[in-house]
Automatic annotation (TrEMBL):
SUPFAM superfamilies: Periplasmic binding protein-like II (SSF53850). CDD domains: PBP2_lipoprotein_Tp32. InterPro entries: Lipoprotein_NlpA (IPR004872). It is found in: Membrane. The keyword Lipoprotein applies. This is Lipoprotein. It comes from Actinoalloteichus hymeniacidonis. GO terms for cellular component: membrane.
């Protein structure tokens, strides 16, 4: 059973439209401080699972002895943790991969600093109607993430398992338009990543990020019909901040705790292979 600590966390509930998203960020998020400030608690934006759970474990078990005052701020999308960081209402976030961050900077702008990889959440293909990729019907609908980094990652997973082939040279940026061979005539349904497990019944199968799969009660190790390999995987989740805060001693302390033996043990004992340490 996973431990769900509830320590000084702020849950930010986000709606689907951009206007509502902006409103939620300003009304429910932490107050902004002057960019570059190293005063006060370290406010870290996270996805609730597993990132928030891991940080809350640190808050309960490790932070006080290390002299770190930590505030965990939960978000339910992949946009606001970065925009809040740029606006100064966070000092760091912990939810994303390097490919996602690179695409985010291209699409949304901003200046970010990747600090340290912490864990991998293997991307998986899940289904409520079939137990094997061999059972996928002709013309099956496959749910995929609509953000470029995770869309590419999902298509690469399908290609690695011979469900499709992709145009040469698209290893880091594939879209549906780059599908060359599609023997099962798969149709792709792009959705916001958090909606993929919710909409699983509406697809024949969906490629779901590990954190959203776990949050929906799915076991990547037991419930997926395809799962990413961990070896040489570039999609580790890690700590991100701004260039102004890259040398903040609070962030250095957080990284030290996140890559500790205690956190390794917590991950291995609580996520059944759905979260793998990257340190």
């Amino acid at each position: 059973m996973r431990i769900r600590a509830r320590v000084r966390q702020t849950t930010v509930l986000l709606a689907a439209s951009a206007a509502v998203l902006a409103g939620c960020g300003s009304e429910n998020g932490p107050d902004a401080t002057e960019p570059g400030s190293t005063d006060g608690p370290l406010r870290v934006g996270v996805s609730p699972v597993p990132h928030g759970e891991i940080l809350n474990f640190i808050n309960e078990e490790l932070a006080e002895e290390a002299g770190l005052e930590l505030e965990v701020v939960e978000f339910t999308d992949y946009i606001q943790p970065n925009t809040a960081l740029q606006e100064g209402s966070l000092e760091a976030n912990y939810f994303q991969t390097v490919p996602y961050l690179d695409n985010f900077e291209i699409e949304h702008g901003g200046e970010y600093e990747w600090i340290e990889a912490v864990h991998l959440e293997p991307l998986g293909l899940y289904s409520e109607s079939v137990e094997s990729i061999d059972d996928l019907p002709d013309g099956a609908t496959i749910g995929v993430s609509n953000d470029p980094a995770n869309l590419n990652r999902g298509l690469q997973l399908l290609a690695a398992n011979d469900l499709i082939s992709l145009r040469e040279g698209t290893e880091g940026q594939a879209t549906e338009a780059d599908v060359e061979d599609n023997p099962k005539n798969l149709e792709f349904a792009p959705l916001e990543a958090a909606q993929l497990p919710v909409s699983l019944a509406d697809t024949d199968a969906s490629v779901i990020n590990g954190n959203y799969a776990i949050d929906a009660g799915l076991s990547p190790a037991d419930d997926s019909i395809l799962l990413e390999e961990a070896a040489d995987n570039p999609n580790a989740n890690g700590i991100v901040t701004t260039p102004a805060l890259a040398d903040d001693p609070r962030i250095a302390t957080l990284v030290e705790l996140l890559t500790s033996d205690e956190v390794r043990t917590f991950i291995e004992e609580n996520y059944d292979g759905g979260v793998l340490p990257s340190f």
